[in-house]
Amino acid sequence: MAVPATPVPHAPIPLVDLAAQHAEVAAEVAEGWEKVLSRTAFVGGPAVAEFEAAYAAYSGVEHVVGVANGTDALELALRALGVGPGDECIVPANTFIATAEAVARAGAEVVLVDCEPGTALIDVDAALAAVTERTRAVLPVHLYGQVADVARLKAGLAASFPDVAVCEDAAQSQGARRDGLQAGAIGDIAGTSFYPGKNLGAYGDAGAVLTRSAELAERVRLIGAHGSPRKYEHSVVGVNSRLDTLQAVVLSAKLKRLDAWNALRREAAARYDALLADLPVTRPTVTAGSEPVWHLYVIEVDRRSEVLAHLNAHGVGAGIHYPTPVHLTEAFSTLGKAGDFPVAEAMADRILSLPLHPQITAEQQQRVVEVLAAAL
What we know:
alpha/beta
């Protein structure tokens, strides 16, 4: 009697494939790192300046200041704006906690508002309604790779609250546009993260502040260098937050490929749209005039915990971004209670991030949807 063949297990499908991405830039990174090592330019140096200039040109701003991570980028941006104790900053409830942390670290009070259903972007009307005489800045988050309606937010603020600044959280949106305006170049100042899994990711922590203002850029650079305009002179209390030189080499190599990688992300998102059309899921909403870069492809499903467990058990690296709104975390529990931000809370119970990255294949996506369909 013939012995039945053992089924060949499917290879795991990661949420993000950093190994495949590294393979595309490995030679260029190795060459760049060798130059840094030979020059012993370990802090600052040409590699950092070159990346700052290249990313400024790419983003359509005059100034980019590299810093140690994305959270520092937001904090230093707020401090450059003069935000501090006694001030309020408006933040969407459904962001990663770092957005709220940056406000708290600057000494200001976090004021939360709800998000829009579908896009999960900040509710501009709610943000404008939350402005008080103490409000110093609003932090729209370009969540999942789609740009928030910063132009409408700025127009509303200019009409009634001209002294309130807009500080974009552009950590998930490198290369994204809305109505032709690029993420990070729409507000007064922006902070971005180059955490490894971002569309433009380093090989460790890294971040940057973007602005058109020479004055704001100078303040950010001053605060991030111990408040020191010259060695052993300290005009303000600063911090130590600088972009690592080796990470700048990685980012320069990846920046050359970012548009091509974002195009592949768009193709993958379109494939998911087609593959999921007949399944009982809520697909992402894209606003008119928006050019997302699909940092994440986030659907909504019933029985999310069961569905996620099934996907993970069958080798599909799905995740949740983010399972807990800011006001329901222990750290910021004073900012609200369950029911205060109903759209963010309802989405948090249903959202599910499917694997998506530039190197994902059509076959992998077909497998993801097959496993998802079985779970549903």
